[in-house]
Amino acid sequence: MKPSDGLGWMVSDGGGAEPRTEATLQKQQSWTRVTRPLKGECLHTGRLKLQADTQGEQERVSLQQHHLIISTMKTLAVSALVCAMMALTRAAAFPGPKAANDQAAKTNLVKRPMTWAKAEKNCLSMGGNLASVHDITEYHEIQRLIMSASYEYKETWIGGSDAQEENQWFWSDGSPFNYLNWCGGEPNNAGGNQHCLQVNHGAEKCWDDYQCNTRKPSVCVKKA
Ligand SMILES: [Ca+2]
Ligand SMILES: [Ca+2]
């Protein structure tokens, strides 16, 4: 069979030898009816699809705009909430000058002489510890406090100790022991019995290890 109607061999029954009976014609026409409309349907369906796409696109765009507006409003609301929370967090995290003054006021000199251990317990009873020192600025603040309270750079306990193990120094408040201001030749553990840290030692007013059972003034610091 020739592809006389331009539909090609695929629209035929494929046999070629079958006589062109009415049934065959109907069969071929049915193929034709199926096949021809397929092209039309494809186009038509395509147009419908295009129209549907267009309408759907409009609806989709409209919905997207709607969602965008809602999303934008939600984002703005969330952003405002986040900004408010950040402002509160900053207010809590970064104390102003008044809070800094309050923290400085929590460092105090205890004039009454006590052994190192009793001085530490006395600080604990006030919610603090013997002072720890982490840089030269902190050390100078402690020296100024001692001078302003006692009018001299008096030897005074702060929180350093190597009582647990020789030459393993700790601050009683648990902070890192990462700054040193030892006097020359100190700590010397003189007599094998010096395990507590006193400040304002010697002419240079530096640090010395000394017998812990000696009674001295002390400096307490209460953490913020
Ligand atoms: Ca020692
Ligand atoms: Ca010493």
Q: How would you describe what is shown here?
A:
It comes from Lates japonicus. Pfam families: Lectin_C. By secondary structure, this protein is α+β, with helices and mostly antiparallel strands. It contains four helices and seven strands. The protein has a four-stranded antiparallel sheet, with helices on one face. The longest helix has 72 residues. The N terminus is likely disordered. The protein binds calcium ion (2 copies).
Q: What's the end-to-end separation, in Å?
A: 101 Å
String of helices and strands? HHEHEHEEEEE
General form:
globular
Arithmetic mean of pLDDT: 72
Quaternary: single chain
The helix-and-strand class reads alpha+beta
Q: Can you give the helix content as a percent range?
A: 40-55%
- Number of DSSP helices? 4
Q: What is the radius of gyration?
A: 46 Å
**Contiguous uncertain segments of 5+ residues:** 1-21, 23-52, 80-105
Hetero groups: calcium ion
Strand order of the largest sheet: 4-3-5-6
Strand content: 15-25%
Largest sheet: 4 strands, antiparallel
Q: What's the count of strands?
A: 7
